Amino acid sequence: MEKTEIVRKYVERLIKSPINLTAYKDLDEAMAFLYLDSVLPVKSEDIGELFLDIGTGGGVPGVFLSIEFDKKGLLVDSICKKVHFIQQTCKELGIEKVETLCARAEELKEKGAFFEKFDSAVSRAVSKIATVLELTAPYVKVGGKVLLYKGPGYNEELGQSVNAMKELGVKLSEVRKYSIRGKDRFLLIFEKISHTPDKYPRRVGLPEKRPIR
Length: 213
Prior knowledge:
This protein is α/β, with parallel strands linked by helices. It is about 40% helix and about 25% strand. The chain has a 7-stranded mixed sheet with strand order 3-2-1-4-5-7-6, with helices on both faces. β4, α7 (about 130-135) and β5 (about 140-150) form a beta-alpha-beta unit. The longest helix is centred in the first third of the chain and has 14 residues, at about 5-15. The chain is globular, with a radius of gyration of 16 Å. The mean pLDDT is about 95.
């Protein structure tokens, strides 16, 4: 199958899934706000050869990044039926570079040698910036990147994340503004500039309840 056909079939399965994976039910709208939103602001070199997708849900953005840029990705979500959907759908459509794991991001370092292993980490619609940085940065190599997809209200969150960035060893290197069907979107690109202390991420729930301040 052509790449565009694989993407379309994946999106069709997403919107028709009996488990609630997306609010979009129209195919063209879903193609725009799920697939296009995932790949439009990203460059191949942002991802490196191995990326991590935290809180992937039904595989967004990880599956689309893997297809678009032909990269290996580990897609992690704490809801196992969502992970099973990704596994089954990727198998049916011949998407071979996606691996999945049902786990909380906070527990990932206990699940294998994942600490500072990945060239990049991505996350879309998971939580506020300080929280998501704690759930992603510990798993990215020094010199790698964390890519966060955000809407127009990201500035306030960013202001509350200064100490988290310093503590976790990342800095904001670029903000890419783009538009999907007239809606402004932003890709925040953080560079990993120093090692993250191995106490991060903290135990389950703490990054959300008590973000690094």
